[in-house]
């Protein structure tokens, strides 16, 4: 199910495209970079997600008859609309692999295509990568703090409409174990799970009977919600009764779920009741406005919670709720391009570039990436991108090129990855990030530097524009 | 384009549905309320949006063969899956009209259907209403402060994936004039608009030539982006040159756009340059991380900005980014139902209910709504829902019933409304809300009370459950 069509875009992309077409500037080659300027959540890293969806959608990228009829009503030129009829994306994409750990101000994905191709895909590319990277990062923060506990996405009802569909996917990449989202489970092959709602028990009035009926007909992975009336006096005792009845049938209750009140307190009290009843295998699931900070607090209190169900704060990526990724022109028609800004951090970096992750002789990440021109060979010094007198020698460090060809002339140049493979890659790469970049408060700043040649080129173009 | 299928749901809805089906509890009638507990943005009101999409989707609500094949792999019962094959929503819905102003703890939409029908539609209903109401409210706050200035949605690239599609719709309901989102324009009939990107000018290097080409091929509603290199020394002077050239051709430049720096300062300086050049008709558009507070500040500074382009903060509904609407069982199988909570504000209200907006003898809103049982006649006193000794006499007040039949037995019971009609209704209703509820800081608290009979019923059920 791809929700993307070629009109899933901003009008100005088409306005610009028409001018490019009419002025015969559209087919010259351009280079655009996708990057962001700040990690979300005041964190020390970002998890890159959404790439597979972008590549899938690009293959399908075309204007339908209906699209063109609509554009006709918006004063587009007939010859331009005729051109759009056969429009396909036939450019190349170099990208960090999905699931990798990335940092601000480094190109994460580079598009090399005709100017019109590169321009027309901008909006949907940003829409998809910004959102999924935001959510994968949020999920990864919870995975980091929840250690080996189970993390489940319950957020669909509070998600931004169908954005919830991709939130479930991104959460899995970030380290979640599954989702309640059936459609995402079906289409992305995600493990799905769920418990019961308060309304189920309310519809019975009789909580014990409600539990009995549920256990009878959904005995596998059965989780009973114990806080509809009174958690410790009614919910947990009734769940224990049903767990015992399940034992007689050779079944096992998977868990009880707490959805309100002081979760640490209720988890400890419930654990005690379950253990006293000989039900040490029955797990405790907790939900209710969880995020990485609440989970951290629960873990520090040693709350005996085995399963965290996370909703709103995961799928909306609270509090940031957006990753401000941008897409900037770096090269066109044989010339490097730059955008000047009074804010030096917003000046763009010209030319096609490669990003290198630096490692020591044991292959361990040293906490720095270096950006160089694709046209230059090895460079031995990297400079701070904005501050003077700050540089670092790269002698003796290994370099892993992060931007790999993923699409060449409109065709995927590597096999589709399963979501499990992407999630595994995220886990492996995240394990290589030193811990000081992972903490929530004042994480260490990961260095991203640029080659001397790139710096010289940027300085040259700035001077050129100031002199005009 | 409906993105919703019957599997766009949480797994637990299907788990519960199976138990209802197997225990023959599924066809008894139930009543569910949709409501929320807190206005977003610490505001004094919420704009209700998303209803038309819900009604449209409900008509299409069904399980496909593919859905059922998938559910088979998830251990669902064969007879239940057979039942789902012909499942349709044939219930009734009573709702506040889309675009109306609503408040916490009042039923906004009431579903009366068989238990299984009401349960299976919960997730998508919450997903759609929560998100669109959030965004319509955010948009309305900006409309309120921007007065008669033009407001445009530019947020698609930062939206939550395809959530951006519905964000554009909701923004229009909330008072925006249009969107850059072409797909939303096409499918919802929204006015679309847009300007140009920095990359357009970068691709030329020569800003003046870029402006000339753009004005030549997109002369209608032409907006030139003036901050790529130097706003006042290059961008505005070049725009003036092109505006003068357009005049010779009998055309008019619509606006220039500022996208960085101090918008108040640059707007004032740009206005001066334009006016000095005899271009007082050329408008000024501004964008860059706008929200209602930035717009308020710009208005207070009398920045001569005619068009606000709002992106991220609109479409993600920052800072809240979610409306916590819930869907609670109030009645089932002939009996009122309740959910108890230690937090008294979370105790649900039993029975089918109606909500009345109270007006004085001139038809002006008095700042109070009253909730009564649908089964009771007129009532003369309303009580505070949670606090004792607080009540209000309703004598002499007019009452407008807010929950109207919008779907009866699965069929829409009123004609589809155009988005323009809904936006007009929003404007009309919002105009009736007294100003003290509209301010951003400490808005007046709109009173929502309950009838004595409803209160007695709730108290009775609480006592009943405590005695069990």
TrEMBL record, chains A, B:
Pathway: Cofactor biosynthesis; NAD(+) biosynthesis; nicotinate D-ribonucleotide from nicotinate: step 1/1. Transiently phosphorylated on a His residue during the reaction cycle. Phosphorylation strongly increases the affinity for substrates and increases the rate of nicotinate D-ribonucleotide production. Dephosphorylation regenerates the low-affinity form of the enzyme, leading to product release. Residues 151-343 form the Nicotinate/nicotinamide phosphoribosyltransferase domain. It comes from the Bacteria. InterPro entries: Aldolase_TIM, N/Namide_PRibTrfase, NAPRTase_C, NAPRTase_N, Nic_PRibTrfase-Fam, Nic_PRibTrfase_pncB, Nicotinate_pribotase-like_C. Pfam families: NAPRTase (PF04095), NAPRTase_C (PF17956), NAPRTase_N (PF17767). GO terms for molecular function: glycosyltransferase activity; nicotinate phosphoribosyltransferase activity. Keywords: Glycosyltransferase, Ligase, Phosphoprotein, Pyridine nucleotide biosynthesis, Transferase. Its EC number is 6.3.4.21. Residues 9-130 form the Nicotinate phosphoribosyltransferase N-terminal domain. Belongs to the NAPRTase family. This is Nicotinate phosphoribosyltransferase. It comes from Mesonia profundi.
């Amino acid at each position: 199910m791809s929700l993307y069509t070629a009109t899933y875009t901003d009008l100005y992309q088409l306005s610009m495209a028409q001018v490019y077409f009419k002025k015969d500037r559209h087919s010259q080659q351009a280079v655009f970079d996708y990057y962001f300027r700040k990690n979300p959540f005041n964190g020390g890293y970002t998890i890159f997600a959404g790439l597979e969806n972008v590549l899938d959608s690009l293959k399908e990228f075309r204007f339908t008859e209906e699209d063109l009829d609509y554009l006709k009503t918006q004063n587009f030129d007939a010859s331009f609309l005729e051109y759009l009829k056969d429009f396909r994306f036939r450019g190349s994409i170099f990208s960090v692999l999905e699931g990798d750990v990335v940092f601000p101000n480094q190109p994460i994905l580079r598009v090399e295509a005709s100017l019109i191709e590169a321009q027309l895909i901008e909006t949907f590319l940003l829409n998809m990568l910004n959102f999924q990277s935001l959510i994968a990062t949020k999920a990864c923060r919870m995975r980091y703090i929840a250690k080996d506990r189970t993390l489940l996405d319950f957020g669909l009802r509070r998600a931004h409409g169908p954005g919830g569909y991709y939130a479930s996917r991104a959460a899995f990449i970030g380290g979640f174990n599954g989702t309640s989202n059936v459609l995402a489970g079906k289409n992305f092959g995600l493990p799905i799970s769920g418990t019961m709602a308060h309304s189920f028990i309310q519809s019975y009035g009789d909580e014990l009977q409600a539990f009995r009926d549920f256990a009878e007909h959904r005995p596998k992975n059965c989780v009973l919600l114990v806080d509809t009336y009174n958690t410790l006096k009614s919910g947990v005792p009734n769940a224990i009764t049903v767990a015992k009845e399940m034992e007689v049938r050779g079944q096992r209750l998977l868990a009880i779920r707490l959805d309100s009140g002081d979760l640490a307190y209720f988890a400890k009290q419930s654990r005690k009741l379950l253990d006293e009843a000989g039900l040490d295998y029955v797990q405790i699931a907790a939900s209710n406005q969880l995020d990485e900070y609440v989970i951290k607090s629960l873990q520090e209190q040693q709350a005996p919670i085995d399963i965290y169900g996370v909703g709103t704060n995961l799928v909306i990526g609270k509090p940031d709720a957006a990753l401000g990724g941008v897409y900037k022109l770096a090269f066109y028609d044989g010339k490097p391009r730059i955008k000047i800004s009074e804010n030096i951090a917003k000046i763009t970096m010209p030319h096609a570039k490669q990003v290198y992750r630096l490692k020591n002789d044991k292959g361990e990440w040293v906490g720095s990436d270096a950006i160089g021109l694709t046209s230059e060979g090895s460079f031995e010094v990297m400079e701070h991108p904005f501050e003077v007198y700050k540089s670092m020698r790269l002698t003796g460090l290994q370099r892993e090129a992060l931007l790999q060809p993923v699409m060449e002339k409109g065709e995927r140049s590597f096999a589709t990855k399963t979501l499990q493979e992407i999630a595994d890659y995220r886990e492996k790469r995240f394990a290589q990030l030193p811990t000081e970049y992972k903490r929530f408060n004042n994480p260490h700043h990961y260095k991203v530097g640029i080659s001397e040649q790139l710096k010289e080129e940027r300085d040259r173009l700035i001077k050129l524009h100031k002199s005009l």
